[in-house]
Write a structure and sequence with these properties.
This protein is α+β, with helices and mostly antiparallel strands and about 200 residues long. It is built from 5 helices and 9 strands.
Length: about 200
């Protein structure tokens, strides 16, 4: 009889834990998904450290200057000289945006139910100033009440905002310049580096 008591206690704990997982499965599913995604793109390197996962290391490599690494697996047509439409499109994106783009950085948040504190802001290509930008209007979608958040130029200050989010999202921004011109830019606010940051 004395041998059965520890067995019953262990079985009770197992059943209790299984029951709690079952009851709270809807809330735990996002956690399980996040862990699975984390394991997909990174692997444990050592205490408190992560490195890029092996699946990403299999991506074809292109060196600065355009030379394809010998071990890369690009198709024959993937390494031809850029066509005029791609060259033109890239130049047009630089010109239309006046070399102003969206950038973002993130850090773990303390806000319950959210994963990261995200800082979204304008940058000019190669570190140029933003003195000619009058304002920026940011739209993040329905999870932010379908509202447009307008930020006006304040000399010397970053032009952007911060928020918190549970999952990645698309940010669309209309930039208005001091001469009245406008441009529409966008950025996918991903959590790729954030997942590595959380593992540090």
């Amino acid at each position: 009889m004395a041998d059965i008591v520890p067995l019953l206690q262990t079985l009770s704990w197992v059943l209790l834990i299984a029951g709690l997982v079952w009851v709270f499965r809807d809330r735990l599913n996002p956690l399980f998904d996040a862990v699975a995604e984390r394991l997909r793109y990174s692997r444990l390197k050592g205490p408190g450290g992560f490195e890029v996962g092996e699946d990403l290391r299999t991506l074809p490599a292109v060196e600065p200057g355009g030379r394809v690494a010998e071990t890369s697996t690009f198709s024959e047509t993937a390494t031809v000289t850029a066509t005029d439409d791609l060259v033109g499109q890239r130049k047009a994106l630089y010109k239309d945006s006046r070399r102003v783009f969206l950038a973002h950085v993130l850090e773990p948040t303390k806000i319950t139910g959210q994963k990261f504190e995200i800082f979204i802001y304008l940058v000019r290509h190669r570190g140029g100033d933003l003195e000619d930008v009058a304002r920026a209007e940011f739209y993040l979608g329905k999870h932010w009440g379908d509202k447009v958040f307008e930020v006006e130029q304040s000399s010397g200050e970053p032009l952007g905002f911060r928020t918190a989010a549970y999952g990645p999202f698309l940010c669309v921004c209309r930039v208005t310049f001091s001469d009245g011109g406008t441009t529409l830019i966008s950025r996918y606010i991903d959590f790729e580096m954030g997942e590595l940051l959380r593992g540090q």
